[in-house]
Amino acid sequence: MPLLANRGILTAKKTAVKHLMLALQQILVISLIKRLETVFQCCSKGEYIMISKLIADRMTKGSWIRKMFEEGNRLKAIYGADNVFDFSLGNPDLEPPAEVLAAIREFANDTTPGQHGYMSNAGYLSTRAAVAGQLSRKSGLEIKPEAVCMTVGAGGALNVALKALLDPDDEVILLAPFFFEYTSYTNNHNGIPVIVKCDHETLLPDFEAIRSAITPRTKALIINSPNNPSGVIYPREVLENLDALLREAPQTIYVLSDEPYNALVFDGETVPDTLTSIANAIICTSWSKSLSLAGDRIGYLAVSPRCEDYSRLIEAVPYCNRTLGYVNAPAFFQHVVERAIDARVDISKYEERRNLLLGILREAGFDVKTPAGSIYLFPKSPIDDDVAFAQACARHNVTLVPGTGFGFPGYVRLCFATSQKTILGSAEAFKTIGREFGLIK
Fold it and tell me: pTM surpassing 0.85?
């Protein structure tokens, strides 16, 4: 009897465990079904995010340049390309100069073995020596080839410099108006962008505002002259005063000088040399605009010999070029720019277009200064809400970029690196816009 009783108890326990397991399975299945229903509902609403939440948030904010460019494409699909006047994207439309095309042909026909293989992460020594020589002649300083690193455009140079300099939560001062990707470049390397607005009228740096923005965490400041979007060139005195201000800080603050528009200047203007005026300068630039090679992604980074911690910095730069995944700048176009180091696009064509668009805007009543360089006009928006104004212009088939996209509301940017046909064709649309906003009668 005790044995039968024990068996009965054991059977009852097994049955209870079985029922418990079935109940748990049902709970898990119900929970999974509810979870899947939530996922499907979120997916149908576009709410479920599998990618990085940080990236998803930044993608939602997006680039105003790209938004307006896509709006231009939408309008062209509806009204035809000839009836849409797109001034949104800063894409140089001149072909590369003859020297560049000749260098491309020459190198393409060069059958020397190993021309397309890996090289030093800093780039070919001969190319770096050519760049260093040009910088030395311009600045009066001795720039050595080891201070130059060939990069994947100016954007690659800025990312390499920031990677080499920043520790988590270090701060980078950005002078608005500025190319808004600077915020992403800073965030890429766990830095914190600190936006400081330039003077609203002159669009030159506000030194007191910069002084107030400097903290013990400030590691770098980015300048861009000639400026995108304003076309303003920073005078030598401004650069020297900026250098003096930054030297007041107890720590070293590096100046990253983004210089892709240095060769695009008008009316006989010149761009003061950054290396001459600023001690802790790192040049980040490309031939995207000066040689119309934007899609070929070739640029360089150059460290001033006066930089603090120079020796370790010039070692860190090629290391970061490699570990960021660039490895090295494109071999083909290193050879091309070396052969065409002093070539330039025909600046007079851009100057002519600048003058045409200036005349059209002023005739329509816009308040717009004459840019000394770059490929942009930066007129004031006739209303405080520059985004609303840009959207209103799109209703007249004119696409431009609100100043908000450059951290500087109240202005709009137009790129004049487009055809004369587009510029001249926009005249009536701008007059209509001018009348709509009370700029002209």
Answer: yes
